[in-house]
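Hi Y.,

Following your request, here is the sequence exactly as I used it, all 465 residues.
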Amino acid sequence: MHPIKLAAALLCASLAVPALAQDAKTAKPAAPAATAAAKAAPSKGFTPPGQSANTPIDAIAVIVNDEVITQRELNERVATIVARMQQQKLALPDAAELRKQVLERMIVERAQLQLAKEMGVRVDDNMLDRAIARIAEQQKMTVQQLRNQMEKEGTTFASFREEIREEIIMQRLREYEVDNKITIGEAEVDSFIAAEKAAASEQFELNISQIMVRIPENASPDVIAQRQKRAEEVLRQLRTGADFAKMAATYSDASDALQGGAVGWRPGSALPPLFADALNKLKPGQNTPIIKSAAGFHILKLVDKRSMADAAAQETVQQTHARHILLKVTPTMSAADAKRKLLELKERLDNKAAKFEELARLFSNDSSANKGGDMGWLYPGDTVPEFEQAMNGLKVGQVSEPVETSFGYHLIEVLERKTDDVSKEKQRAAARNALRERKLVEAVEDWQRQVRDRAYVEFRDESLK
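Below is the corresponding structure, written out as tokens. Let me know if you'd prefer a different format.
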């Protein structure tokens, strides 16, 4: 995947939204007949100079419910995907099979976008602008630099914007229809943690430093012998009391040489077996003998060692106890209306004319409304970035200005803060997230298949079936 597209996909995956009442299984397929849009679309377009009049330019490839996908749209998508695969040096499949795969993906996307439209899922220009700004930031670019990059690669910025809009819409729809319906039982969490503990009972993290004497590519035997002699001299000096960090800064060819060769903490399972086997024989403070790899000659120092359980026990994190009032943007509540209403509520709170929990019960569209908007204790990452950033900027007892997220608009109040040991609660949260991800893959595939099966699809080009 193109790195910018990957960033967009990750961004979309972070946009969490609450569930809607409508279940996808209640959706009805479109009538099995060509619609006005399909009838209006030309079966053949104009003929450019030098091209046969019998060559279809913008013929209908397929009808999906009440919309069409044209040959031109299909050709453009195929060309884009081929270019990306070539850029990534991936082998291209058979051309006919690739067209079928691409068209099937377009059918599923079109069916999802139609369902999203029916359910009122939208992404306005302001939200899209913020999403693109975050994509640019992730790529360490300005928005203008991102625009220049996309246009240099042959993608207009307008089409890129619409592609990101559609990706976010489909992600939000998936969250409405799938993500929020996945449940994880406490017994499942207990079993997962027990299995993880059993697997990690003999796992360690190692704090290591290294000195590497690099072997040049295609080096002759004489050069290799010279590099080995250099490594042997380093080891000799270390054995007579030389400082490891100083020797690394002097002799090491690794990128961390000027940091004294410090690699830092690494799980033993993440190290090459050649290194892990040698380090497992050491006590903290000891060095390995010379280890030869394809890259060069290595001398490793075991600075320290700890069990994975000990590492987890040392983690602490700031928790925030917060509550909020959420107003969703709906066909009957515009963004401007939601913001204006929250400003009115904030004025009442500032003037002590109402209590936060009373207003939350009366007006909030969130499931926390019956608890006065209380969200409980929140860990970093428990909420979407916009919410967390605004919450972290508040003092205890302070109420925010209206904050926009993919949920809608919020008033946020911080009730308490504490720094806590996360070894239990966060362990359970991590287990719950891992279980959710496992279930999500299968659930999303099943839901997408249902959306596709419920859609009325008519192929106008039989070769694409």
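Residues 123 and 311 are 42 Å apart (CA to CA).

Thanks again,
Q.
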